[in-house]
Design brief:
This protein has 18 helices and 29 strands. The chain has 638 residues and is α/β, with parallel strands linked by helices. It has four domains: 4-91, Beta-grasp domain (Ubiquitin-like (UB roll)); 115-182, Ubiquitin-like (UB roll); 190-334, 2-Layer Sandwich (Nucleotidyltransferase, domain 5), CATH 3.30.420; 354-490 and 497-638, no CATH class.
């Protein structure tokens, strides 16, 4: 018999083959465990407490005392027999909030990706004996050679028409018959918009007849166990892992579909009940690598010079081909990308912002593991991608974490240390917005110099990795233990090992954050230089991504992440990629805008551009080597 593994605190059990890693067993059981290094044991984030029969490698991420208490890395632990696993809060992944923002929602009328048309045909007679398909085509206003449909749908046609007594609802994607149903069900036409991020996948269920959003859900991309960034996943795919990566992203989407449609049966939201079979259209935005992995395309050449994808314009496909658990005939539209590192998510950002329709010059920044930047207006667009690194998503920072319960999201050092956490719970670490606040506040109060070096302070000390600033002392933070009864384990891990630690930021952490912000600022400068412009020429600056929604604008300017411009020129878009995918789902005009943006956009490759490296060096200070660029900060610093 296969060993059984039980995960707490979720209380989920699963049978797996001997030799399966605890990390993979957790993913299969639907238990989200933090991991960033593709299971190589490098990041140390997948710490769990184990009782049972496992074979685990020792690691420097676990002390001798912790090892004796049952702590192991899930990725380095192979299952030999039945075991019970406790996933502590520090290793849990919790879904992020879907953050909407100010998008260009100027739809004059709905023209959804799939439209529903009611057709009432006259029954055939000996005098009028047209074939079923020709009769339907004529009623819908098509010539016999104009309307396409699949063979599987054609096989269903006679039964559907006669069940409806020659009245049907046709679901059409331009000149393609997506599905046909008996009787009049024009009002039962639904679609989903999906944003596939490297870290997070978000989905909205939409009524295509009204444009109303019925339900939404988000979750971590299950590919995370194979690496935190796209390059790690591409490398995993090269090692015979391509189909596994495709399965994981499809599985993530299907779990989100199950949440909004209650395991494919009903979803209750705003008084509507939606069957998964009634979902006729899917609009997907995502970076180029994620689109390749969704389609099962070889992403290998994205990471090798000259960095060429298989395609930036994906072919028509349907839900059945991709393995999505909705109507198998449902039309799937992928927002076009532009280059290996400027994908459909950025085109969707452009559509959501409306910048490609503006007369004035706009700059759009999407902050993530890669920092994508777009400059332009209705006549032209320039785009580039800078390898920003994961610092703003909690990576490469000792006490960094993604935005979730317990993440410190706001910090002030004026009149003493003040901070707030997501969920108003005990602080566990710093997410991106909290890191920006902390660096800005340390710089503005003199704790940090412009080179990113810590200055003497009652909170600065020598730590394990050099100088560090203590934001939260463990003795001052609220302490809460785990409920031993809820875990079903013979001991409570916090009874054996006190996991509460001071929350600090080291000089190496600071250097990583400075490199990240310098990369984004320098990328924007290169685009402006290419266009013969400077920051002062910008009329609009759009910040995309859920991360950007939480940024304190003044603090982001203080560290040199954003230019020092009048604050009214900035607009936070939230998850603009999801909003753009939704707009494309609902409007032919927006789908054409996305295609036009793809065609109008010129990609600037930074990896061989000396201008980028020069500007990166200048921006690798707080806020910049040229303080005159930041007059509001110069005034505060004196």
């Amino acid at each position: 018999m296969s060993p059984q593994v039980t995960f707490h605190p979720k209380g989920r059990s699963i049978d797996v083959p001997t030799g399966t890693s605890l990390l993979e067993a957790a993913i299969l059981a639907g238990v989200e465990v933090n991991s960033a290094c593709a299971g190589k044991g490098v990041c140390g984030r997948c710490r769990v407490v184990v009782e049972g029969d496992i074979d685990s490698q020792n690691t420097t991420h676990i002390t001798v005392e912790e090892w004796a208490s049952g702590y192991r890395l899930a990725c380095l632990s192979k299952i030999k027999g039945d075991c019970v696993v406790f996933v502590p809060e520090e290793s849990q992944l919790k879904p992020m909030q879907i953050v909407g923002g100010k998008v260009s929602n100027d739809l004059k009328a709905l023209s959804p990706q799939v439209r529903a048309v009611y057709a009432k045909m006259s029954p055939p007679t000996l005098q009028d004996n047209d074939a079923d398909l020709e009769r339907l085509q004529k009623q819908l206003g098509y010539e016999p050679d104009e309307l396409e449909m699949s063979l599987s749908l054609l096989r269903e046609l006679p039964k559907v028409i006669r069940e409806g007594e020659w009245t049907v609802t046709a679901f059409l994607d331009d000149d393609i018959l997506v599905d046909i149903r008996s009787w009049n069900c024009v009002s039962r036409n639904f679609g989903v918009a999906v944003d596939i991020g490297t870290t997070t996948v978000a989905l909205q269920l939409v009524d295509l007849s009204t444009g109303e959003m019925i339900a939404q859900a988000s979750d971590y991309n299950r590919q995370l166990m194979y690496g935190e960034d796209v390059l790690a996943r591409i490398m995993y795919g090269e090692d015979n892992g391509q189909e596994r990566l495709r399965f994981m992203i499809v599985d993530t989407i299907n779990h989100l579909l199950a949440r909004v449609c209650n395991a494919g049966e009903v979803c209750v939201g705003k008084g509507k009940k939606v069957c998964a079979e009634e979902i006729m259209a899917v609009s997907v935005a995502g970076n180029t690598t994620m689109m390749h992995m969704l389609l099962g395309l070889d992403a290998k050449w994205i990471r090798y010079s000259p960095y060429t994808p298989v395609t930036n314009l994906s072919p028509r496909t349907n839900a059945g081909e991709l393995g999505l658990n909705i109507n198998p005939h449902a039309s799937v539209h992928l927002v076009p990308g532009r280059a290996s590192y400027v994908g459909g998510d950025i085109i969707a950002d452009v559509v959501a912002s409306g910048m490609a329709k503006n007369e004035g010059i706009s700059l759009l920044i999407d902050v993530g593991t890669n920092g994508e930047v777009v400059l332009g207006n209705k006549d032209w667009l320039l785009a580039c991608s800078a390898s920003a690194g994961p610092a703003f998503e909690g990576g490469e920072v000792c006490h960094g974490m993604r935005a979730g319960d317990g993440a410190i999201e706001k910090v002030s050092l004026k009149g003493g240390v003040q901070y707030s956490t997501i969920g108003k719970t005990r602080p566990k670490g710093l997410c991106g917005s909290g890191l920006i606040d902390l660096l800005a506040q340390m710089f503005l109060t003199g704790v940090l110099d412009k080179k990113g070096h810590l200055q003497p302070s009652d909170r600065v000390r020598e730590g394990e990795f050099g100088k560090e600033y203590v934001l939260v002392y463990s003795k001052d933070a609220e302490k809460d233990g785990y409920d031993i009864k809820a875990t079903g384990m013979s001991c409570c891990p916090t009874d054996k090992v006190e996991r509460r630690r001071d929350i600090t930021v080291t000089e190496e952490d600071i250097a990583n954050i400075v490199r990240t912000k310098a990369s984004i600022y320098a990328a924007a400068e290169v685009l402006l230089d290419t266009a013969g412009m400077s920051f002062i020429d910008l009329q609009h600056v759009y910040i995309a991504g859920g991360f950007g929604h939480h940024i304190d604008l003044d603090n982001a300017v203080a560290i040199g992440l954003l230019p020092d411009l009048p604050r009214e020129r900035f607009t936070f878009l939230g998850n603009a990629s999801l909003d753009g995918a939704k707009l494309c789902l609902l409007s032919k005009e927006k789908r054409e805008e996305a295609l036009a943006a793809h065609r109008a956009m010129t990609y600037v490759e930074l990896s061989t551009d000396q201008r980028f490296f020069d500007r990166f060096s200048s921006a690798s200070f707080l806020p910049h080597t040229d303080l005159a660029r930041f007059p509001s900060i110069e005034q505060i610093r004196g």
